[in-house]
From TrEMBL:
Its EC number is 2.3.1.-. One of its GO terms (molecular function) is acyltransferase activity. It comes from Sphingobium nicotianae. It comes from the Bacteria. Keywords: Acyltransferase, Transferase. This is GNAT family N-acetyltransferase.
């Protein structure tokens, strides 16, 4: 059964089984498994990060929070989506999982052991939604993860169209080695020697202190310092720093505070002579981690402070074991992190057919044919 919008938030819809009463999103029993029993962890869709994003960022269209529940009314799946009117070069209605510009993973939160059931309800809700269009454009998904495996299997059983439309590799950190052994194995000897020389030179500039946030009372000052540091670099010059727009600044403050309360926040910094020269924000827990943002002081760029703080990050993950793995959230082929982290994660996007009748099926098939024809013509001209 598809329920209408939740009375507590007009932008939400809930997918439920049988004739179950609507249950308010965010109930304590619901949220418990979101932190520690997801098939794939995604902090960007947890309330700690999703709620501030929904409050600060206006999407082109309304954001609908699709939720799936089992026969007892317990939450087993959650995916925020938004309608779209254009897909690539084609003006066609569809629905896409919502990823704002600071969201680096798009997998729905599915309770482990209920992946296929959760997907079945989410897709059924989108089938019935008049605003959804003939397909779901699913972005930022681990191509080798259990969430996609369950979706692929369900689509095969239901006869749904399932198309991969792009993929790329990004660096991740996952190892049983300690930080020193990993550093030795993955970083060339010549580079390690050069970094030791730079560390010695940096120490001549003043006392070097390596820290991670332990006192919640210092969070506000750390966030302020991060915003100032990021604004000094190229992101500040281009107007893309988190301090460049009020809504981005407000999101960072709210997200870091909520993540700290939820036990997700891990912040690192390196100070030289009492001033931060590198800072790093991670969102991590016992299921997995995401390296969210890094900022360095461009005046110290010659000392490679970004690489130095990534050494500290290695120690947090591989020595302190704050999380079993860390996703870099980096672009494909990132020159710095790709040279330090040896593992890779395949991030992909897909088109999933929705049941919108014959016209919807024809529209999706026509677009796919047009894409293939365009690719053939483009290849012939190359």
């Amino acid at each position: 059964m598809n329920a209408g919008p939740l009375p507590i938030q007009s932008r939400s819809v809930v997918a439920q089984t049988a004739a179950l009463p609507a249950v308010r999103a965010g109930d304590g029993d619901d949220d418990a498994w979101l932190m520690d029993a997801c098939a794939e962890p995604n902090p960007f869709y947890l309330p700690a990060l999703l709620d501030p994003a929904l409050a600060m960022f206006d999407a082109a269209h309304a954001v609908h929070l699709i939720e799936a529940r089992d026969a007892h009314g317990a939450l087993i799946g959650r995916l925020p989506v938004t309608p779209g009117n254009r897909h690539g070069r084609f003006p066609i209605r569809h629905v896409v999982n919502w990823q704002h510009h600071h969201c680096f993973f798009g997998a729905p939160l599915l309770r482990a052991g209920h992946e296929r059931e959760g997907w079945q309800q989410i897709l059924a809700a989108l089938d019935a939604a008049p605003w959804a269009g003939p397909f779901l454009h699913l972005r930022g998904i681990d191509a080798d993860g259990p969430v996609l495996a369950a979706l692929r299997a369900l689509c095969a059983v239901q006869g749904r169209r399932f198309e991969e439309v792009g993929r790329y590799e990004r660096a991740m950190l996952r190892s049983h080695l300690d930080a020193d052994a990993y550093w030795t194995e993955n970083v060339r000897a010549k580079k390690r020697k050069e970094l030791r020389r730079l560390q010695s030179r940096l120490a001549e500039m003043g006392e070097i202190v390596h820290r991670h946030l332990t006192d919640p009372g210092e969070l506000g000052g750390w966030v302020d310092a991060f915003l100032r540091l990021e604004a000094k670099g190229w992101k500040g010059e281009q107007g893309t720093a988190l301090g460049s727009r009020p809504e981005d600044t407000a999101f960072l403050r709210a997200a870091c505070a909520a993540a700290l309360d939820a036990g997700l926040l891990d912040m690192l910094r390196i100070d030289c002579a009492g001033q931060p020269i590198a800072m790093l924000i991670n969102f991590a827990n016992a299921q997995g981690g995401f390296s969210f943002k890094i900022a360095i002081d461009p005046e110290f760029a010659r000392y490679s402070p970004g690489v130095l703080i990534e050494q500290d990050n290695l120690a947090r993950v591989l020595d302190d074991r704050i999380t079993p793995w860390m996703d870099s959230c980096a672009a494909a082929g990132h020159p710095m992190i790709d040279s330090l982290w040896g593992e890779r994660r395949m991030i992909a996007q897909y088109r999933i057919g929705l049941d919108k009748g014959l016209l919807g099926s024809l529209a999706l098939s026509g677009m796919s044919l047009a894409e293939r024809a365009y690719a053939m013509i483009k290849g012939a001209r190359a």
